[in-house]
Amino acid sequence: MKKRQFDAIVVGGGAAGLYTALCLSESLSANSSGLAARKICLITKDNLSISASDWAQGGIAAVMHSDDSSLLHAEDTLKAGAGLCEPAAVKVLVNSARTQIEKLITLGVDFDREIGGLLAMTLEAAHSRRRVLHAADATGHALVSKLAARVLERENIQVLSETIVLDLLMQQGRCNGLFCFSLNQNLSKNPSEIECLIAPVVVLATGGGAHVFSQTTNPPSSTGDGVSIAWRAGGLVRDMEFVQFHPTALAVKDAPRFLISEAVRGEGAHLVDDKGDRFTFEYDPHGELAPRDVVSRAVFTHLQKTGASTVFLDLKPIPPDRIAHRFPNIIKICQQWQIDIFSDPIPVTPAAHYCMGGIVTDADGKTSISGLYAVGETASTGVHGANRLASNSLLECFVFGVRLADSVIKDQIDLQVDLPASIDYPEVLDPAPEIFNSQTQAIKDALRSIVWQAAGICRQKAELEQALTQIQAWRQELINLKSYTRLWVETNNLADFAYLLVKSALFRTESRGAHYRLDYPDPDPTWQQHTLIHAEEISRSPLASEI
Ligand SMILES: Cc1cc2nc3c(=O)[nH]c(=O)nc-3n(C[C@H](O)[C@H](O)[C@H](O)COP(=O)(O)OP(=O)(O)OC[C@H]3O[C@@H](n4cnc5c(N)ncnc54)[C@H](O)[C@@H]3O)c2cc1C
């Protein structure tokens, strides 16, 4: 097996991975005699321009102006999190926001500004102030393109694109590296090309797993790989039942569920039913700008009540020049589906959008496994609780990315792992017959449908139990279909992710934040606790600090 050694490996080319690699590159270089001595590897299964981060639209939350305060930002975050945020982590998030935004600006990120140069801010649901910075409606792309350019300039970062990580290299309970393979080769014909990358610091920045739902705003690469990889290695995962459903994804037959950003409602668009009536106030006094779970359930319930198949976003209350200035990308995508957003209401539906739970980390990105770190959507730092406040997730990538890099240096991790004499990935496969691919694809499609049906916006015991039994059967089947293809690796990770999610949704017998049980429709104060999974064990764990 091919082996390579690095000082740190970052898995993920989204906002979290790129920023963490940049910060590690700076901290490691500053603390070493020369750049060449400190080598960081950044791995992505696509290339640096493909990630959920690149798709982010609305913006990034931060307190930048005097009419706002970190205290208010913290209050809004805690309220959206419905009693399950870790207050200490929230404090870190809101207090560090401004510094990270300033650093992003020095790295070349252009946020929109008002005439006069003041940073422009928009309003999103459940924010008490206009505090969302943006770059038109393509904020993620503006961030990722600049960060990727900076990463490529760094001599001590080696980027391995189109390379997929399979599992971690675990030795005496410590993570000392990982196994991966390049997607540019035919591994089923030549399985010896699995590589072992060795490093004392491995960072999972692999993003979320919302692609486990058939209806999702996420790219196909959001297959929950990091959570599944860490869990298989014995790491702790938390709050997997909490998935945010975004109320307004494009609902056109055969179109992907393209996100129609919340900023559209923030700028004044109305959510209307097929008769043109604004209906959200029937469900919550905040109407369209109630938290996302409330609006998603309002849409779900209203559609059931009226028998209609879709609801609509009406942009007529927004002045046309404002629409043109703020939403050029949404205009373009809708045009592709023959919708002129200046005159036509946009048909929308809820879709799975963001995974609040993930790999348990402390405020420095450390997981329960020595040598393993996590950051971004794959991590559970505790900032999102039972429901994420809009635009806090990009912020989380930066705030916790820099802390992770700093802590690696602070802890003076021994930056050498001895190269083990022999390492074998557990098994080497014979070329897999083509039929394996079609069976794996069929499992993937069925899995995504069942997770949407059973663990979507409204959940209940019988359906969750049935889904869990079926998912277990598919996990077994996948073992027999094993082949080193991207399809198999991602489907296997999706199946593990689905197992953790559905098991947690069944375990939590209450409704809270984004987790809604029809059979337990109210919050239960005794459930103000995290759901923790270690191997097959599921348990409750109290919050680390009081609210
Ligand atoms: C349509 C959309 C709009 C959004 N809008 C906003 C917004 O306005 N504001 C906001 O704050 N948040 C928004 N979000 C959420 C936010 O974009 C994500 O939470 C955030 O970008 C996650 O960043 P990340 O770096 O953790 O993961 P990602 O950006 O998903 O990156 C994950 C990376 O890991 C790599 N990877 C994964 N598994 C493997 C593997 N096995 N091997 C190798 N590489 C792997 C992927 O290739 C990718 O490079 C939005 C999300 C979507 C989908």
Question: Helices, strands, pairings?
Answer:
Elements: E1 2-5, E2 8-11, H1 15-30, E3 40-43, H2 52-55, E4 60-61, H3 70-80, H4 87-106, E5 121-122, E6 132-133, H5 139-153, E7 157-160, E8 163-171, E9 174-182, E10 195-198, E11 202-204, H6 225-232, E12 237-238, E13 243-250, H7 262-266, E14 270-272, H8 292-306, E15 311-314, H9 320-326, H10 328-336, E16 346-355, E17 358-360, E18 372-374, E19 379-380, H11 392-410, H12 434-455, H13 461-480, H14 486-507, E20 530-534, E21 537-541
Parallel strand pairs: 1-10, 2-3, 2-11, 3-7, 11-18, 17-19
Antiparallel strand pairs: 4-6, 5-6, 8-9, 9-10, 12-17, 12-20, 13-16, 14-15, 15-16, 20-21
Helix pairs in contact: 1-5, 1-11, 3-4, 4-11, 6-14, 12-13, 12-14, 13-14
The structure holds flavin-adenine dinucleotide.
